[in-house]
UniProtKB/TrEMBL annotation:
It comes from Candidatus Lloydbacteria bacterium RIFCSPHIGHO2_02_FULL_54_17. This is Four helix bundle protein. It comes from the Bacteria.
Amino acid sequence: MGDIIRAAFAPKVQKLPTLERVRISLEVIKHLVRTEHELRIIDEKTYLRIAELIVETSKMTNSWIRYLMGNARPPAQ
């Protein structure tokens, strides 16, 4: 996930395209992990942990994208 680090250090105008690539990469990873689980390559516990990390990273990435687009939501209370 070098693109996340690139986005952190990129000028503001270059962050959005980089984060869009990150979002696509996360979706691809999510589908690959699901396929691995369905084929019993990884067990249930491993699948759930990886899926949790992917969801968490996706939420952070989407929040960052919303912020850059000026549609940031207020923090949860």
